[in-house]
Amino acid sequence: MPAFGHLDAGAEAYSHDHRLLSSRTLRARHTSLVAAGLQEARSGANARPWHFPRGAQLVIGFEFCERVGFYSMVSLLALFLSASRAAGGFGWEDKPALTLLGIFSGLMYALPVVGGWIADRFLGHRRALTVGGTLMFSAYLLLTAIVFMTRVSPVQAPMGLWSIPAGLPTALRSAYVSVSAGFWISIIALIAGNSLIKSTLVVALGDTFAGADTRREPAYAYYYAGINLGGLVAGVAAGSVAAANGWAPAFGVSAIAMGVALVAYLTFGHRYLNPRAASVRGKSAAAAPADTAGSGVRLFILAVFALLLLVYSIGSFQLWGTMSLFLERSVNRHASAFEIPTQWFTSIESAALILAAPVFAALWGALARRHREPDNLVKYALALFLGAAGLLLFAIAAWPHAGATKAGWFLPALGIWIQATGEVAAWTVTYGLVYRLAPQRIVSAVMGAFYAMTLGLGGYLAGQVGTFAESLGQGRYFLVLGVATAAAGLVALLVRPELRALAATRSIDLYSRTA
After folding, report:
1. CA distance 469 to 481
2. 8 Å CB contact between 104 and 96
3. Which residue among 28, 96, 295, 357 sits deepest, i.e. has the most Cβ atoms within 10 Å of its Cβ?
4. Which are the contacts of 282, defined by CB distance < 8 A and separation ≥ 6?
5. What angle is formed at CA 363 by the lines to CA 422 and CA 371, rounded to 5 degrees?
6. Residue-by-residue DSSP string for 463-481
7. How many CA atoms lie within 13 A of 279 on its CB side?
């Protein structure tokens, strides 16, 4: 086995220098060394959060709190923007609301490529996390204040626009400008802060483990679980607070969560983390002496994975836009006398991710022990097929039917659940894949670029294509998305032989070992 080639070399050297030892003794020593290595690999696969370094635990906790803030805000944004002025919202039409949601989501995942480059070359990871966290916390506080001002404002015209509505009394113009300026400043600050944090956190987590520490992959799995747990908490918390207390306190959930993350990092980061300093002549202090040969091939392979994940992301981001508007307006969300808040449906996705992760881990582990674990391309294809199935269930629920009755909530909820399980199949192997294949001197920038190509462009395109839902009809709209996603899954299987052959020319492993 290549992973233990150094053990063979060590055993041969030992035999050369100690010829008086019997061959049986040498074989026994060699066997014990290999067994120790296998035991180390098994211990890595079975690692739990309490087995990780304190720095890794801090990063996972930081990401959990940050995701509570982000998912709380994004679960409210389209609904708040399109809510009437009487209901305390901005009173926008659906199309501009979905467009802004798409641009915001896209930039939140696209600009980490710039933030990662700034962190690598200028700020260093410690300062990037401090500046980014402070920007996001301040932005959430400002946004909460702006939403409160919107609720008490007597202006009946749509709020938050670039231009002052015609006929607005002079006494209200300054208040209108303050609300609009504060809203857009908070949006820009969130995008800027997130760009510094997103890819830097992923790299900071990997750097808490030395060399080929086998606990790194399980740590990324728990990091991903923290993201999903944050989404679960966010949907329930923001939806419940919005239903009970209105928009402003619901947006305040984001500020509280981000504040906890920032305080924890400022308190413990200097003690448990040793983030990379800014680069000197293009090389980080923590980077490897030289990048692995064949970096061009590695980046090309990552680009193929990114394109496949882009198609999945366009479908999954519908949850925050067209799916949420469909659930809010066209679905009977009553369970007996209780009306399910729309934001709770976003928590279904997170719950599915959390529950599906151990199932997939057990499945991959069982297959790996039989030497049958699929490579990452097969896992991506599975993700796309599951995403397509979820979209097709939405198409069935939204398809025009006789009568004026609203669709039931069960089929959409099941569609969200099935679509989310596909995300587990792809993203649980993605972080480790990018960390292994990216040139180490620019690993933050590559991680940011991967976010940009998948979640960034996916979020933006989801908002853009969402504007066609009304003209196509929601049933046909979800049908087209489902068919396109399934087609991408077939493409993943078709390119698999060629991509594996290309990877083999540079000794690139397309498997994520789980056992």
Report:
1. 11
2. no
3. 357
4. 121, 441
5. 120
6. HHHHTTHHHH-HHHHHHHH
7. 18
Residue reference for tokens 């659940």: 417
Which three-class secondary structure string do you get for 382-414? Answer: HHHHHHHHHHHHHHHHHCCCCCCCCEECHHHHH
Q: Residue holding tokens 């800027």? A: 192
The pLDDT confidence band at residue 296, using thresholds 50, 70 and 90, is: confident
Q: Which residues have CB under 8 Å from 235's CB, separation 6+?
A: 71, 72, 75, 343, 344, 345, 346, 347, 348, 349, 350
CB 405 within 8 A of CB 332: yes
Place of tokens 């908002």: 463
114-158, pLDDT tens digit by residue? 888 888 788 888 888 999 999 999 999 999 999 999 988 888 888
Q: Is residue 279 a contact partner of residue 440, using CB atoms and an 8 Å limit?
A: no
For residue 201, CA distances in Å to 116, 215, 222, 313 come to 10, 17, 13, 21
Q: Which tokens in the block code for residue 420? A: 């989310």
Identify the pLDDT of residue 402.
57
C-alpha span between 482 and 386 (Å, rounded): 10
Rounded CA-CA distance 16/12 in Å is 6
pLDDT digits (tens, 9 = 90+) for 441-459: 777 778 778 888 998 899 8
Return d(Cα 4, Cα 41) in angstroms, integer: 11
Cα 205–chain centre separation? 15
CA nearest neighbour of 186 among 251, 125, 95, 128: 251
> What is the spatial distance between Cα 437 and Cα 430, in angstroms, rounded to a whole number?
11
Cα atoms in the 13 Å half-sphere on the side-chain side of 291: 19
Q: Which domains does the chain have, with CATH numbers?
A: 1-40 (no CATH), 52-504 (1.20.1250.20)
Contact 221, 63 (CB under 8 A): no
pTM, full prediction: 0.74
- In degrees and rounded to multiples of 5, residue 326 shows phi and psi of -65, -45
pLDDT of 195 higher than 50: yes
- Is residue 228 within 8 Å of 474, Cβ to Cβ? no
Q: Of 279, 315, 361, 326, nearest to 46 (Cα)?
A: 361
Helices 410-437 and 216-245, axial angle in degrees (round to 10):
140
